[in-house]
Design brief:
The structure is a single chain. This protein is 23% helix and 52% strand. It is α+β, with helices and mostly antiparallel strands. The protein has a 7-stranded antiparallel β-sheet, covered by helices on one side. Helix 1 crosses helix 2. The chain is globular, with a radius of gyration of 15 Å. The termini are far apart.
Amino acid sequence: MTAAIHGSFTVERVFDASPSRVFRAFADPVAKARWFVGPAGWSEIERSMDFRAGGREIAHGRFSDGTETRFESRYHAIVDGERLVYVYDMYVGGALLSVSLATIELTRQGTGTLLRITEQGVYFDAEDANDQRREGTLHLLEQIATHLPD
């Protein structure tokens, strides 16, 4: 039997862009494909995105050693320019690694935008997975900063 390990975290980042521009980084499939990718050595196999409440998103890829990863999400709440709530499953090598509830909140801060991500997850047989997921999320925020849509 696999252990179910629960964890949560919140991370914040201020972007020098409007809330609508930061929101487009998540909402526009072309914009999201620029930053929502695996680390070095990962290549895309499949990507689809139906950005609406009840819609689904898939990002499936493979590392050079043949290991595949698959992100499958379902959007639950979308408030344009303000908030996203979605649940996602993460698979590695065909095995379910985690199930997470993610909330993204955008708030105008001066001339920029404060982005807050809160994630609550259950990880299967991975003691340090919550810390790893937090670090991965911070990396993705850096990628968003360099790939914000116009």
